[in-house]
Amino acid sequence: MSNRPLAAAGRLVPLLRAGLIAGIVIAAAAYPLVALTGLGAKATAHAVEQKTRLLTTALPAETSYLYAPDGKTVLTMFYEEYRQYTKLSDMSPNIQQAIVAAEDSRFYQHHGVDPKGVARAFVANAHSSGVSQGASTLTMQYVRMALRDSATTPKEVQEATQQTSLRKVKEMRMALDLEKEMSKEDIMERYLNSAYFGHRAYGIYAASEIFFSKTPKDLTPVEAATLAGLVKSPSEYDPADSDQKEATGRRNYVLDRMSQLGYMSPDSAAAAKSEPIRLKLTNPPNDCAAIPEKYNSWGFACDYLKNWWSAQPAFGANRLERIDKLRRGGYRIVLSIDPKIQEAAEKNVGAKEGTGSPFANGIVVSEPGTGRVKAMAVNRTYSLDLAENPQSSNPEAGPNVKANYPNTVAPLLGGGDLPGYQAGSTFKMFPMLAALDSGMTLSTSFNAPYRYKSSVYDGWAPSNASGAMTGQQTMWSGFGKSVNTYFVWLEERVGADRAVRLAEQLGLRWRTDVDREQASPGKAKKWGAFTLGVSDATPLEMANAYAAIAADGRYCEAIPVQAIMDRDGTPATYATPGGIHREVAKPRCRQVVSADAARAATDAARCPTGDTPARGGCGGWSTADSVRGTVGRPVAGKTGTTDSTRSAWFVGYTPELAAASFISDPDNPFNAVGDGQSQIPIAAVAETLRDGLKGQPTRQFTPPSDAIVG
């Protein structure tokens, strides 16, 4: 074999030792094909400079944390790369010394590229006719990791990691430039936060927690040497394998190097090498299914958070970008769920229908004036494991289709892509509120027959649930008794389209083809059955719509968080169309109807609950007259059932909280729950409001004005 490459390397060493860029380029030119790349071209140099500037600001992906309302209890995390950025001052000197000993013993002497290392690699690569040795310093390794982490396209990822001479030379150039911009301490900090240690541990914080269940500040020399040894080959030196031979050998090599570099005495190194590797493994939770069993029902709120997040333009241009931001952005997210109200909701749903029933009984509680969701509970276990679920109750489902109980992660309470459930007479609120806001009064009277034939709706002739509803009705008595014919007549006068548009302003969305067609501008005027609740809705929507009435007509978008902090500790913001930056977690509210119209609707809505309105009479009886006695404070609301009681609802509210509960079979809407089950949502709402508000001062509803009473 010729000695010419060795001789050439010998001539280059003095240049390399001098740290001259020219020497590095010449040495690198010995790598195959580099001389043909046009490295010195102005365009290439400009591109390298641009990327170098990027590296001084680029940060690696970081885990987002989801907290309970106390801001301290971690419910779960969201990540692709489990990582928590840690300052160098919060790391033990042991890990800094160990990583230098393992990867780059001359880190504090060179300026980004180690001339000796390049010479060694040049010789080795000349003999192998390829790139067999990389000569990568910690700075060069960081450059590679940062380019990979900041890549936005597959091509950029490939360019950052491919084993080519051109990539290596660019890496050298960027490392030299980077060390002019950043201190050794900053580079060390970035490196230790970027490196992969195996077992989904990205960065030293994750590695310390996963392997030893401690923080980087508390790492011993033995633990630090074990982790530092992993960077070279995480799978080969994995200490969690049953055979720790390779991991121990690598650790001992690092300990020897630490001794040789003066970081520890030979005796200390020898003692450390005699110790076995003692692991205390931790498996960090990821995503909603990993929420602790104690908080299992909070999984539905977590799932709603993800769906809500994916619709927020503040986090990206589309759903994929937004979820990627959640899993890589290092956010600190505090749920809006109130533990006391959530506990009450969990206790009061499914009291008669346990998790083993095909009928889902769920409840959502919303806060008037903010839209913050305070509770989400359903008689289901939040779990991805459907193995023990029975076959679906839907006869049209295939033989291998599982039911949604007892385990599910389906968004049964709203916020996802399921259409919801027919909400029955709870929809009577929308034409009544539209009528009041248009100038009609609570005293608007109509002699409601048992059956009413509508000339506006092409002869459609709905009837009442009972003959006892026949007679003269006002908004108070018509709402309290749920008189169908009164509300069809009222809807004719205000216009079904106006009621539909108002429902939309209060947050309702049409998710089935039939509902979308009926709600369209060309059809809405003739949608007479809208007031009877033939459209699908979710409890999340209904709780939030009624919350707007409790808030004097001020609608606030449903929101599952009370705070979202960026990785730098500042509130996450978004830009409005007018260019104003607002916090993402702040309520987004707007006045939809006049305060007086909302107060009047509330006065009528006290009738169904057995409460006494401030200004009128309820007509002697109501559909849920037990609610006032259960809640023990002023309360308004509305019952709702569908044909053959396929589903049953109750939406109720006080000045402080609004709650919507339903019971239905999500798999098969034709599986009727029956009349006997219609009391379940009524009890769930009444008892949840009672328990959730226990100990709080009693607030009164504001009475409507004389003008709107009539």
Notes on the protein architecture:
With 710 residues, the chain is of the alpha+beta class. Among the domains are: 82-274, Orthogonal Bundle (Penicillin binding protein transpeptidase fold), CATH 1.10.3810.10; 421-558 and 588-670, DD-peptidase/beta-lactamase superfamily (Beta-lactamase), CATH 3.40.710. The chain is 39% helix and 11% strand. The strands form seven sheets. A five-stranded antiparallel sheet has the order 5-4-19-18-17. Strands 2-1-3-13 form a four-stranded mixed sheet. Helix 2 (21-29) runs antiparallel to helix 8 (165-181), helix 12 packs antiparallel against helix 13 (266-273) and helix 17 crosses helix 19 (484-494). Residues 1-43 and 129-133 have low confidence and may be disordered. Residues 363-667 form the Penicillin-binding protein transpeptidase domain. This is Penicillin-binding protein. Keywords: Carboxypeptidase, Cell shape, Cell wall biogenesis/degradation, Glycosyltransferase, Hydrolase, Membrane, Multifunctional enzyme, Peptidoglycan synthesis, Protease, Transferase, Transmembrane, Transmembrane helix. Pfam families: Transgly, Transpeptidase.
